[in-house]
């Protein structure tokens, strides 16, 4: 179940003056910094900020723009010509957020996993590797490919189970190509009513602006943090009547 936008974190915090010092850590000459798997933003001693790490699997048919979305969220350039991902690619994105109740600032480290559809069908270990210890999944469709939209239900049912504690969000790509759209707003509305999942729209070229990626990254952060808080509350309730020794065994 997704949470209401802005109920946990400060929406559009990147527009507030007090966010500049934090967002400057993921920027270089007004463009996003590229971070490798072992890299992180450099923090001065006076900035006491915790980093929380999450694995996010990007799922979708060939050609919907999985690699392009990962690049967009990381502020990276991507090839204009489409080519299918031959294996598994990972992209690291850091995103600072401010919690509404406590004014605490957290750096979210998203590790996006993207796998080519052909490789996933050919090698049985690909999908299990992408799903292993995954925290969230982005299900993609293209507004210019109705087949990718109609495959959403099958895609979600095939990859996830009702018992999975995984954040699920849907992203419609190529929304800027409205003259060639094969998916209508009423289609999207019906899907949201049936599945109860939020649908985000992306399109256009990657730019240095934070505003185009903020809604999706904030939604990921908000839902993941909410899920962790619920899990922590459940553990606290479950261990309330246990001795210290019992708690150490659980941990």
From TrEMBL:
<keyword id="KW-0813">Transport</keyword>
<keyword id="KW-0547">Nucleotide-binding</keyword>
<keyword id="KW-0268">Exocytosis</keyword>
<keyword id="KW-0653">Protein transport</keyword>
<dbReference type="InterPro" id="IPR039677">
    <property type="entry name" value="RSG1"/>
</dbReference>
<keyword id="KW-0970">Cilium biogenesis/degradation</keyword>
<dbReference type="InterPro" id="IPR027417">
    <property type="entry name" value="P-loop_NTPase"/>
</dbReference>
<dbReference type="InterPro" id="IPR001806">
    <property type="entry name" value="Small_GTPase"/>
</dbReference>
<keyword id="KW-0206">Cytoskeleton</keyword>
<keyword id="KW-0969">Cilium</keyword>
<dbReference type="GO" id="GO:0003924">
    <property type="term" value="F:GTPase activity"/>
</dbReference>
<comment type="similarity">
    <text>Belongs to the small GTPase superfamily. Rab family.</text>
</comment>
<keyword id="KW-0963">Cytoplasm</keyword>
<keyword id="KW-0966">Cell projection</keyword>
<dbReference type="GO" id="GO:0005525">
    <property type="term" value="F:GTP binding"/>
</dbReference>
<dbReference type="Pfam" id="PF00071">
    <property type="entry name" value="Ras"/>
</dbReference>
<dbReference type="GO" id="GO:0030030">
    <property type="term" value="P:cell projection organization"/>
</dbReference>
<dbReference type="GO" id="GO:0006887">
    <property type="term" value="P:exocytosis"/>
</dbReference>
<keyword id="KW-0342">GTP-binding</keyword>
<protein>
    <recommendedName>
        <fullName>Ciliogenesis and planar polarity effector 2</fullName>
    </recommendedName>
</protein>
<dbReference type="GO" id="GO:0015031">
    <property type="term" value="P:protein transport"/>
</dbReference>
